[in-house]
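Help! Submission page says 'invalid entity' but I think these are all valid:
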Amino acid sequence: MSGGHPTVKAREVSGGSPTVERPTEVRRVGAPVQALIWTGGLLLLLLSVAVAVTIGPARISVPDVWSAVASHLGFGASELSPIRDGIIWNLRMPRTLLAAVCGAGLAVCGTVMQSLLRNPLADPFVLGVSSGASTGAVVVVVLGVGGGAVSLSAGAFAGAICSFALVMLLSHTLGATTDRVVLSGVAAMQLFSALTSFVVMTSADAEQTRGVLFWLLGSLSGVGWSEVALCTAVLAGCLVVCLAHARTLDAFAFGQDAAAALGVNVARTRIVLLCTTALLTAALVSSAGAIGFVGLVLPHAARALTGSGHRRLLPVTALAGAVFLVWVDTLARTVLDPQEVPVGVVTALIGVPAFVLVLYRTRSTS
Amino acid sequence: MSASTGLRAERVGRAAGGRLILDGVDITPPPGATVGLLGPNGSGKSTLLRILAGLLAPDTGVVTLDGDPLAGLGRRTVARRIAVVDQHAVTQVDLSVLDVVRLGRIPHRRAWSAPDRADEEAVTDALRRTGLADRAAQSWHTLSGGERQRVQIARALAQQPRELLLDEPTNHLDIQHQLELLALVAELPLTSVIALHDLNLAAMFCDRITVMKAGRVVAGGTPAEVITEELIEDVYGVRAVVTPDGPDGRPSVRFLPRR
């Protein structure tokens, strides 16, 4: 693990210097702190990924990781055995990266939902996306719809989009106010959970039930580069959309009327952001299952760190979510080795006490 | 359409649930004046303010800003001209006074831009004019009701509007803060339209008064012209004695018990 420092130092020199110079031209106090959080967060994420990949049954060092990554990116040949190289590049690397992408994406979706719906209990799954995904998944896996041509992920994605469309249709019919959106989400969640249970109870055997349950709780086992590529692309696109709406999200602090009075097109903003977060959530859930709690807790933790301005909050939430899920997944796959704990179980076990702590610390302000 | 400056509503009507809330309302606040909007609950004051702010579209009639229909101006353009203060601003977000006042710059900024000097100057100026300069760092949630309303006015000023619309901004305040807030609004060099319940406060601070009843404007003019015993009896169904004992000989209202 000590070998990790040279890599990190190299990054600091090449990538860190522009950020360090920024404090000379800032207008507000606190910007140096922001730059520090930023640089520190990025370094922490890189370090976390590098170290998390070394952890597991096969003993691997950080320089091994660096050498494998460098050789696959075309910088020099790797001296690792094909097996070690395969463990790094084909097993642990995609899994760790997908953990980072899922953590970042779910945390950002949670932040946007909480601000947009003005509900501190909102999370990425509040619009029924995860329940729809689970129904889609069991329809494919248990009922065999698609005859094997449709993958679990594709089924889950289709289910998620169906559920989201139903929620939008319902809330539009019911008057499209914020609480109607939330209530429609709750209704869809109940409906699709019931459908999932019904299919599992009536048609699945024990093995299938166990598999579906494992996936429902969130699992990053067995993911490959195609999932990483897909989710990263969706995350990048959705992040750009969310960041473009950062100021707009600030305007929702005093409600949608206040936002409209500040020049925000409330209806358009809501549609754009709900669709964006639903798309991202659907992509993440269909690759890694419904990993709970990240989208609920991380936004609150990030707010305690940076304040509530979304220009700063969204990137910091993304970084915090990524680092958090990288370590939680590492814990999930090692703590009961050789058995794997669903990562959603670990996020909840860690998340609940963390949540209570955050709420306790901020109790005086609200 | 005749060229006019400022905000103007012409024959504005709005129905909800089969009931007419506004019925052919005309109002033209004189530029720079403080206009009091009086009337019983449900007379249409809030709806009229929302329509004047462009937050609600009228079913009939038209609202114009410098002669241009509000509906065709775009929300951001309107928000740079017209600011709104509600009777009770609520948030769960942990914001400082400065954060709230900065919200007023949103209509002036593009999606990706950082705040520039004009933004910071507008915010500083708004804080100074509302006497909040040394409270900038304080958390919104630790403020009293009166202070919160003052912060909302500072936020509105940061929008650098020429029209300020206030919907019963003193509703939840004690008398000291009511007086303080209305004095602040009356001194601003903006066109203000302010919905109020207290006739004496309206008489004290407003240049003009418009009285509404059941969705119609029933009287308009200076406080002395409008606030009379007959009007109070007619609009509120209440007996009162009106004397010219207010500041500068403005009307002063004393209510009488039922006969």
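Support: the input was valid. A stray whitespace character was the problem, and the output above is from the cleaned input. Confidence is low (pLDDT under 50) at residues 1-29 of chain A.
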